[in-house]
Specification:
The N terminus is likely disordered. 17% of the residues lie in helices and 28% in strands. The chain has a nine-stranded mixed β-sheet, covered by helices on one side. A six-stranded antiparallel β-sheet has the order 14-15-16-17-19-18. The chain has a two-stranded antiparallel ribbon with strand order 1-2. The longest helix has 13 residues. A hairpin with a 2-residue loop joins β18 and β19. The chain has 400 residues and is an alpha+beta fold. The termini are far apart.
């Protein structure tokens, strides 16, 4: 009974015109169903359901209408600016809707097409973004092998001011809808908190935006080719997000280019399953007194492409296996990575080739940083040691 009274009390604070407008009309076409979707796990947080009650206005209202008249659906025009898509979004919160991290993925398989960047650019499948050297393309599939969604991501790293993550999430399958509901958020003073989204009508398509300057930003829409969500980091400006929107408006994703059989399959396994993998590229840790606590391989289509190992020295093996060595005085750790597919940032951090490494170079680098990296042919080795002396001993053993 108390819960029913609480709900009624909340609903009683809603302006009556919102309730009237929320009622279905026989003469009004039903809005696209995706506008009511709830948050879906693993990146399908389409954040629209419920908030539409406070935004449902006639499309004929002009974009330049005074804000004092309340939130309205904006009308796109040729002079529409990137920031206009985020016109009504509140800057009071640093958060936009997220999926639950512990939720199970709604798909069964994943394949990668990241190596196809140049080909996709040449075919106008994706835009050219030369300012972002890292590109990832993942496709997710249902248990029957049909496509569930595509994720295209461009990344830029370096100094904090250069940080950027731009992502397009897209799909064309039917998505399960939740029941229609009215959601009203009340602050501590009992006042209605207005939704922090902006809705824009562009060519008859509703575009929903979240976020503000200095926050994570999202744009979501659905057209005849599928549904799309564009995500930018806190450091990405409006122009970067809308650039992707304009691209998708002219270049809908060709989902037929992402058959599961054509993608790369990455899997993580224990080194014990492939004991000879990279045997000529890894030190003999055991001979230097190191005990393996974790050793993993990353396989690309069944072939090892990288190694990551965690080792501990100067402690009993039983304690390492039990994970109880942390309080043992004098123990040291060694985190060793070997990668046959380094990215541009891996290569930039390298001090040189293996044969050019010297004790002075290694110890000087580790006096300033917690890790050291060097190339070995086309591969990159990255080491995170507790002891610079032990790091040099292992590197020297590889030189000989």
């Amino acid at each position: 009974m108390k819960e029913e009274k609480r709900i009624l009390n909340i609903l009683s604070q809603v302006d009556e015109r919102y309730i009237e407008e929320a009622a279905p009309s026989k003469h009004v076409a039903k809005k696209p169903s995706w506008i009511k979707w709830g948050t879906l796990a693993a990146c399908f947080c389409l954040i629209i359901a419920g908030a539409s009650v406070l935004f449902k206005q006639d499309f004929e209202q002009d974009y330049n209408q005074e804000e004092s008249s309340g939130h309205t659906v904006l009308q796109w025009s040729d002079n529409f600016q990137a920031e206009d898509y985020f016109k009504y979004n509140s800057a009071a919160s640093d958060d936009v809707s997220e999926s639950k991290s512990d939720a199970a993925p709604p798909y069964a398989e994943t394949r990668f097409f990241s190596d196809n960047r140049k080909q996709y650019e040449n075919d106008f499948l994706i835009p050219i973004i030369d300012s972002h050297p890292l590109f990832d393309c993942a496709a997710h599939y249902n248990s029957d092998g049909s496509l569930f969604s595509i994720e295209l991501s461009w990344h830029r790293r370096g100094e904090t001011e250069d940080y950027s993550d731009l992502t397009i999430i897209a799909g064309h399958q039917e998505v399960e809808m939740i029941e229609d509901c009215i959601f009203v958020e009340i602050d501590e003073q009992g006042n209605i908190v207005e939704p922090t989204i902006t809705v824009t009508n562009r060519d008859g398509i509703q575009i929903v935006s979240e976020g503000k300057a200095g926050q994570k930003k999202k744009i979501t829409f659905q057209n005849e080719s599928g549904w799309y969500q564009i995500v930018g980091s806190w450091n990405d400006d409006y122009d970067s997000i809308v650039m992707l929107l304009d691209w998708l408006w002219e270049h809908p994703i060709d989902f037929t280019r992402f058959s599961m059989e054509a993608g790369d399959c990455y899997t993580s396994v224990l080194l014990d399953e492939y004991p000879d993998a990279f045997s000529n590229y890894l030190p003999d840790f055991e001979s230097f007194g190191f005990i393996a606590s974790e050793t993993h391989l990353l396989l690309k289509n069944g072939v090892p492409v990288s190694f990551e190992g965690h080792y501990v020295a100067h402690v009993e093996e039983s304690l390492v296996m039990a994970g109880n060595y942390y309080d043992v005085q004098g123990h040291t750790k060694m985190h060793w990575c070997f990668n046959t597919e380094p990215d541009i940032y891996d290569l930039q951090r390298c001090l040189g080739e293996l044969d050019t490494m010297t004790e002075d170079i290694v110890k000087d680098a580790l006096s300033k940083e917690s890790s050291i990296a060097f190339t070995w042919g086309d591969n990159v080795v990255i080491i995170y040691p507790d002891s610079p002396d032990e790091a040099w001993e292992l590197i020297a053993s590889l030189q000989s």
